[in-house]
Amino acid sequence: MKDTFDIIVIGAGHAGSEAAAAAARMGSEVLLITLDMTKIAQMSCNPAMGGIAKGQIIREIDALGGLSGIVTDRTMIQFRMLNKSKGPAMWSPRAQNDRLKFSYEWRMQLEKIQNLFFWQDHVKQLIIENNTVKGVITSLGVKFFAKAVIITAGTFLNGIIHIGSTQLRGGRMGDPAAIGLSQQLAQMGIETGRMKTGTPPRLDGRTINFSVLAEQKGDNPPGKFSFDPESKMILPERSCWITYTNKQTHQELEKGFKFSPLFNGTIKGIGPRYCPSIEDKLVTFPDRDQHQLFLEPEGTETVEYYLNGFSSSLPLEVQVKALHKIPGLEKVEIFRPAYAIEYDFFQPTQLYHTLESKHIHKLFFAGQVNGTTGYEEAAAQGIMAGINAHLIINNEAPIILGRDQAYIGVLIDDLVTKGVDEPYRMFTSRAEFRILLRQDNADQRLTPLGHKLRLIDDRRFGYFEKKYKHIDSLIRFLKETSISPDVINPLLKKKNTTPINQSVKLERILLRPQITLDDLMSAFEPLKEKTNEVDLDRDEVLQSVEIQIKYENYIEREKLIAEKIKKLEHIPLPRDFDYNKINSLSTEAKQKLNKIKPKNIAQASRIPGVSPSDINNLLIFLGR
Question: 604 in a domain, yes or no?
Fold first, then answer.
């Protein structure tokens, strides 16, 4: 049996699957070790991908050549573009997925990769020599050796499940916890903490009264995540449904508060601020009479529903009584209760931007073990860990995405620079350059890099080049072609916007908020003929053209700001420098700088507790 590989990936969740796929497709021989091969990339919580900022991340992963977008499209049962009432920087794609088919599709995608091998087992220990990882030892006593190891263990490290006073050891319901690995790392000086997350009950759809619920359908026609022209939705669409808690629901829940491990001190881990349990909501918002809940279908061929918004660690009987007070759920039966889970994580300030450990060479961490929450954040870390592990073991320069280049860059920089004191979730508000990091232009930002890394094949790259030739050609046409008052004024009057007195460029008309590209095409036949030349995803091309024209000034302004900040990234800081030597720095700045060891002035400026005055003093010290 083969026992030596280039890279070993521990855990086959969203982070592990992307890491293994990326490294293997780049040419490394990769071993993916998982507790259960039937649950690869399992959707442990909600059966959905994307959402606010998370949808942008999935598009970025796809643009780099990752697989999350393709798998999402192939197993999607509903698609919605969120925030369409706001500017395009806020538009975020979201999909409901068939949970079982999502995991199955991921496994099929991974098994197609020639250099990727699998082993079903539990890693209990790392093999470390001279502060460098050399391999792993499993619970079966098998030793595997590698040049690099990536830990993507999710919620499994010392996982404990809580349902009222009942405690079960596990990484999720029905799966065992992983014991041993985090203890070894803690003994080696790696800072370890505990976090908590939760999941709602799963409901029997046959016992739900849908007639009193509000139906939520997907977009028609549905969009997609992957930029690959061959990727599309192939499963039948399913609706989601909306209901609300009420005072009676809250009264039933409050009866169980004294038994809640969240309130009686049993749970020590820190929970997610932006995905709180239902009991958390009642305490945080005591004046709210109701909370919105979403019933999300688990697939095309099952009656199981996920009750989004009702995570809990309350006793089973309390959960059931509270559910029966919710409109539409008066007679509902459940397949499994809500529960909370505590698990170990490692403070990500102990990592370089490559996601390699600062303490143990060639050891990488990705996903929830770094204190994040969500499939999307995990997958983003996974693909970057896989890429960089391959590059580093082959003595090539690693890839570090900038904050103006990708939400993935913002995510990783936040983690390694600021650390976490609660589960980290990505939001559009975390990015300084949201108008640059739109979901529609992720391929423009990242696909050339994905092609260079051999994660985007020539077929897809050819499509990408053709797409942007169409976009550039249409933008030139709009900037260079004039339209006369007699042609355009009927449309302008109809749209209640000021008519023109002389011919102007089409671009000037499109800049008006009342006018869309479709409006212009309907009024000006040469433009319509020009758009008919687009022989690929026409809607995607036209959307990109309209956004680039309407928001050109904002885009250019953000680019200028980003360039100014980038200049600070060219001012390096010594990796092993003792900041106590600079007397003009504040005590807090010295402590934070010595702990994090920023690689440049730009990263130093983002560390909490390091003031602009401290940055000025650093620049003076460096002779700047």
Answer: yes
- Domain identity same for 543 and 590: no
**pLDDT tens sequence across 515-556:** 999 999 999 999 999 999 998 888 899 999 999 999 999 999
Cα torsion through 98, 103, 105, 106, rounded to 10: 140
Instruction: Evaluate whether residue 492 is within a structural domain.
Output: yes
pLDDT tens digits for range 268-293: 888 887 788 999 999 989 999 999 99
Tell me, yes or no, whether 545 and 576 share the same domain.
no
Q: Do residues 474 and 515 both lie within one domain?
A: yes
pLDDT tens column, 294-307: 999 999 999 999 99
C-alpha to C-alpha distance for 73 and 55, rounded to whole angstroms: 12
Domain termination site, one of 557, 580, 597: 557
pTM of structure: 0.93
Contact 462, 451 (CB under 8 A): no
Shared-domain flag, residues 616 and 585 = yes
Alpha carbons within 13 A on the beta-carbon side of 198: 32
* Residue 522: strand, helix, or coil: helix
Q: Is 309 in contact with 200 (CB distance < 8 Å)?
A: yes
Q: Give the HSE-up count for residue 42: Cα atoms under 13 Å, Cβ half-sphere.
A: 20
Cα gap 248→469, rounded to integer Å: 59
- Inter-axis angle of helices 538-550 and 458-480, to 10 degrees? 50
CATH of residue 600:
1.10.150.570
Look up residue 592 and give its two tokens: 């934070």
Query: Is there a contact between 250 and 282 (Cβ–Cβ < 8 Å)?
Result: yes
Let me know if residue 426 belongs to a domain.
no
Using the predicted structure, report yes or no on whether residue 51 has a pLDDT greater than 90: yes
pLDDT band at 310 (very low <50, low <70, confident <90, very high): very high
Domain boundary among 508, 534, 557: 557
- Do residues 167 and 189 lie in contact, with contact meaning Cβ atoms separated by under 8 Å? no
529 CB-near residues (< 8 Å, 6+ apart): none
Q: Are residues 599 and 576 in the same domain?
A: yes
For residue 452, what pLDDT band results from cuts at 50, 70 and 90? very high
Name the residue among 212, 155, 162, 197 with its Cα closest to residue 39: 155
Work out how many domains the chain is built from and give that number: 2
| Whether residue 550 sits in one domain with residue 464 | yes
* Per-position DSSP letters for 170-199, written without gaps between them: -SBTTBPPB-SHHHHHHHTT--EEEEEEEE
Average pLDDT, the chain: 95
Residues 6+ apart with CB under 8 A from 451: 65, 458, 460, 461, 464
Residue 543 placed within a domain: yes
pLDDT the model gives residue 238: 98
Q: Give the model's pLDDT for residue 588.
A: 86
Residues 577-596 as b or e (16 or more Cβ within 10 Å = b): eebeebeebeeebbebbeeb
**Which structural domain range is residue 598 located in?**
570-621
Any idea what the CATH number is for the domain that residue 513 is in? 1.10.10.1800
- Among 292, 606, 297, which residue's Cα sits nearest to residue 432? 606
Answer for the pair 126, 132: CB distance below 8 angstroms, yes or no.
Answer: no
